[in-house]
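User: Run a structure prediction on this.
Assistant: Running it now.
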Amino acid sequence: MNDVAAPIRILTVCSHNRTRSVMIEAMLQSMLDHRLGAGAAVVGSTGFGPPDLPSIPDAVAAMKKRGLDISGHRSRPITPSMANDADLILTAEREHVIRVATLSRVAFPRTMTLPEFVERSERSDPAVGELGAWVEQLTEQRTTDVYFRDRVEEIADPTGSPPRAFAAAVEQMEQLCQVTADRLVAARRLAT
């Protein structure tokens, strides 16, 4: 199903944009394309490291096993414009949420760790209306002061982990992406 509505704009963020954010981007884009149709969602990735570095080989191999090719990916640092333009920003770690908020205060209500988004979205059914309003509703009680003290679920960096641990981390991300896709598909269908 490919709606005439504007595409959902999602940005995934990790430390260096070479492992977690790239794999989440690839899996989530594939899942949303399959369920909503190509062009209904645009998923990009970014980080806080140097630009133009390739994905780590373990990430490339893990995505290849899933039929996804990230071999051409090159890292790119996040900018305030990227943060401002996204409907939803999914990070790997709590620290990434804080760093995005430092770049763009207006992006903070739309920025969550991937596990945090899954938890919050499962407690709140999307309502008819704009996707962005629902996303911001998920965090409307969250303030930056509280966020610094809150315990927030994260995705540990599997870079350099033994193969079994790396594979387990990828499976965790894949499961989180599946739930995220389910929630976004439900929200998109209600909004159109």
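The two ends are 11 Å apart (CA to CA).
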